[in-house]
Design goal:
single chain, alpha+beta, Muramoyl-pentapeptide Carboxypeptidase, domain 2, 2 domains, 4-stranded antiparallel sheet, 3-stranded antiparallel sheet, 8 helices, 48% helix, globular
Length: 218
């Protein structure tokens, strides 16, 4: 449920519910785009996404997946460094005082407005060391189309980096179901390196996301 708007000065400020028109600030005379929080942004086409993925694969082969994962992981780490103080200042509470799901929704809304897709995070097994994320309309998978393999390595790294930062534990991530494999949405698992290595083996063996999650949870 969206939070009500609050007024700061003459303009209404929105919290965790807004559309791209509310989120971006275009300076036509300067040719720049900024987000509502002042960060610099740029618009990328599907051709750019496809070119980045395929260009890396042409240059380094299978190592492209790990490069994208590491880029996503560092993105997640750095994003938390900027976002935590921003959200604490906006709501007047420390991160430790916020509900985890509330905080995660605050974090994801800007990414959804930027075109990274919608998500659903499952924290029900976090005490057992597992976090699950469903991603709808992945910018990468929808751009590449049905290629028959997981392609959202950047997202997997992003989620791993974010939860590593928040939990202060070394966590890894993997995509166990992908839109680019003909599925309706993408699914990710975040956990210890040992568990994610096991999940990676099962993905290579062709196990379904449901089977992998059952194995990890047992």
């Amino acid at each position: 449920m969206p939070f009500p708007e609050i007024v700061v000065g003459p303009q209404p400020e929105k919290h965790n519910y807004y559309n791209p028109e509310d989120f971006f600030r275009f300076a036509i005379d300067k040719g720049t785009i900024h987000t509502r929080s002042g960060l610099r942004a740029f618009l990328a086409t599907e051709d750019f996404v496809v070119g980045l993925q395929r260009g890396l694969e042409d240059e380094v082969g299978d190592a492209a997946a790990m490069i994208l994962y590491k880029c996503g992981f560092q993105w997640g780490i750095e994003d938390m460094k900027a976002f935590v103080p921003l959200i604490e200042r906006e709501f007047g509470y420390r991160l430790s005082e916020m509900d985890a799901k509330f905080f995660m929704e605050q974090w994801w809304w800007p990414l959804q407005a930027e075109g990274w897709g919608a998500w659903k995070v499952d924290l029900s097994q976090r005490k057992q060391g597992l976090i699950f994320v469903d991603l709808f309309d992945s910018a990468i998978a929808k751009s590449l189309g049905n290629v028959g393999k997981p392609v959202c390595h950047l997202y997997a790294g992003l989620f791993a980096g974010v939860f590593t930062s928040l939990t202060r534990r070394d966590l890894s991530g993997i995509e166990v179901q992908c839109y680019a494999m003909g599925e309706d949405f993408c699914k990710f698992v975040i956990g210890s390196e040992k568990r994610i290595n096991a999940a990676e083996f099962w993905v290579r063996e062709g196990a379904s996301a449901r089977d992998i999650i059952e194995k990890l949870s047992s």
